[in-house]
Amino acid sequence: xxxxxxxxxxxxxxxxxxxxxxxxxxxxxxxxxxxxxxxxxxxxxxxxxxxxxxxxxxxxxxxxxxxxxxxxxxxxxxxxxxxxxxxxxxxxxxxxxxxxxxxxxxxxxxxxxxxxxxxxxxxxxxxxxxxxxxxxxxxxxxxxxxxxxxxxxxxxxxxxxxxxxxxxxxxxxxxxxxxxxxxxxxxxxxxxxxxxxxxxxx
DNA sequence: CTTTCGATAGTCT
DNA sequence: GACTATCGAAAGG
Length: 202
Known about the structure:
202 residues, DNA-binding, hydrolase, DNA damage, MPG, DNA binding, EC 3.2.2.-
């Protein structure tokens, strides 16, 4: 079975089903690799926290397409990347929130240093979705990339982690649908970001 | 460790 | 003009 089929099969379920499956897998881009330690699930039109909730726009178009594509958006001057899963028409995304840099540490540190004056501990290089994309050099121009058909290993699937190593809780910074525990992380991993409640509007 | 607050820029109303 | 699926610095425990 080709890797392409493996990935396509692995991403076939609903967002909360697939999300923990990505923990421990490795995301490669531009000479840096990150082992995923934290993921959030954003489900289709029924999830009021999802960008897709209010329908298709120019920004979220990729989420409405086939699974295995990368959905990249920008906000607050940072980029966040999602892996699209499920079937076309049910726009679901998996936000990659944090990871451990396992290759290209010097380059990752260089990219981070451009936006920070103080020293960065190694386990914090890819802690937080904006920091992770900065380490990897992912920008809005990577939106729509098909991870299944890329010649290099974009997303290197690893065997699923034992359930005992996985924790879950509410999503970070999300003001709606607070009751669902759709953030998943590897228990005890230092690269996992700390929980932040949504800031009250106004 | 925690909380709070301002900066930030792209998207949508 | 108002909103964020954010970040880092600063201040407090």
